[in-house]
Amino acid sequence: MLRNFSRAFSRSIPKLDTLVLVEAAGGKITPASLSTVTAASQIGKPTIALVAGPDGESVVGDVATIEGISKVLVAKGSRYDHYLAEELSPLIKLILESSDQWTHFLTPGSAVGKSVLPRVGALLDTQPVSEIIKVESEDTFVRPIYAGNALATVKSNEKLKLASVRGSAFAPAKLGASAVAVEDVAEVESQNRTEFVGEELVTSERPELASASKVVSGGRGLKNKETFEALIEPLAAKLNAAVGATRAAVDSGYCDNSLQVGQTGKVVAPELYVAVGVSGAIQHLAGMKDSKTIVAINKDPEAAIFNVADIGLVADLNEAVPELTNKL
User: Fold this and answer.
1) Is 101 assigned a ligand-binding role in the annotation?
2) Which end of the chain is more exposed for a tag (fewer CB within 10 A), N or C?
3) Does the pTM of the predicted model rise above 0.70?
4) Domain limits for position 124
5) Is residue 166 within 8 Å of 134, Cβ to Cβ?
C-alpha cells in the first residue's frame, strides 16, 4: 500500500522543494509556524505547506494565503488529531521519499516539532539541525549552543536537510497573498500503538507567551503562589502582557509549567520583558536574553539578571511592583 501511494504521489506532485509543517491551535495558525515559513523562504526554494488533522483542516484557507507558500498539502483524518508524532512521522517520511526533488523539511521548534523532527530523522537515517536562528545558505545554518552562550554555524551535507526553527528568531510570514492550490494527501497506516489520552489546558485572556510583545515574569523571589498571583497578574493586566515564570517558580508551584521561560521552557523575544524576583540563572537567560528591552526588579544588587537588564531597579518587589502597577 505504501509503495503504490508513493508512486501516485510522485506523479501528481512534481518538483517540490521545501516542505514546512504548519501547526494550528484554536483555529489559528501558530506564530511559530509563520516564522518557520519565513525561514523556509530564505532558503530560496519553493515552499510547500503541510497541514494535518482537524486542526490543520480548520486553517487551510488561511495557510493557502501565506506569503511565500506555493502549495498546500492537507492530511485529513482523526489519526492526526493532537499532532501525535507517532502518526505524523510515517506520513512525512512517505511524502519526503515520494520525490527526489525534496531538499528540505522544516518544522517549528515547538513541542510538536521537537517530537516529530527526530523521529523523521531516524526513519530517514538523516541528521536534523535543531533550533536554527539564521539561514546562511541552503545548506548552512546558525543555531545556539551552550544554553545560548555561543552560536554554532552548521553545514549539513545531507541530501535532504531536516531542521527545526526557533520562532523568535524570524519575523512571522504575512497572510493575505493570492490563495494557492490545495491538495489532499492520503492517510498512512502507521501501526502506532500510542493513543492520545487527554490534556489539561490553561486558559487565559492574556496574550500567548511565545508570541507576546510584552512579558512579565516572576521568579523564586516571589516566595509563594499567592504573592505571584497578587503581584504578577495585575502588572501583566496593566501592560496587556503575557505571564511567564522561571523554572524555580514553576517547580515551586507558583504557576503552571506552560508559563516557563528558559532553556527547558519557552524561548521568547518580546519588545518588553519585565523580570520580577528573577535571579538570572543561565538557563532562564537562555530563554529571554534576546528581548528588546529587559527590565529587572530585585532587591539583590548582585543578582545576575542585572547583567542583561537594560533597566534595573534594586528594590523590595512587594513595594515596587504594586506601586508600578498603580502608576500604570
Assistant:
1) no
2) N
3) yes
4) 2-185
5) no
